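Below is how a single chain appears once it has passed through the pipeline. First comes the sequence as given, then the structure the pipeline wrote out for it. We keep one example in the README because the format questions we get most often are answered faster by looking than by reading.
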Amino acid sequence: RRVKRLLISRFQLFKRYGVDSVSPKSELKLIQKMEKNLTIKKLENGAVYVSAFDQNADTAALMANAIVAEIENMSNETTRQKNERVYAVINDQYLAMEKYISSLQED
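Resulting structure:
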């Protein structure tokens, strides 16, 4: 969903695909048109296959590159969040051990 919204905004897809943005279910209509022109697949080796079609080949290439960039951003964000959680756990364990050692030294 995040990738689709980025494309809609960046490439003005309501206008590009001739979808009235204020009509009921306009976003659904636009997404259906987008899905006919975009392919995003995760391959067995973990790579991502991206294909975009447009009336203009340069625009299609820009769209595909934008998709790849956003997927990389999402992956990096996920990795960063995991690293922050791991750091918090390790830091808590370190502080607990430091407190324990300090208590042993007091005796």
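The radius of gyration is 23 Å.

See the next section for the split statistics.
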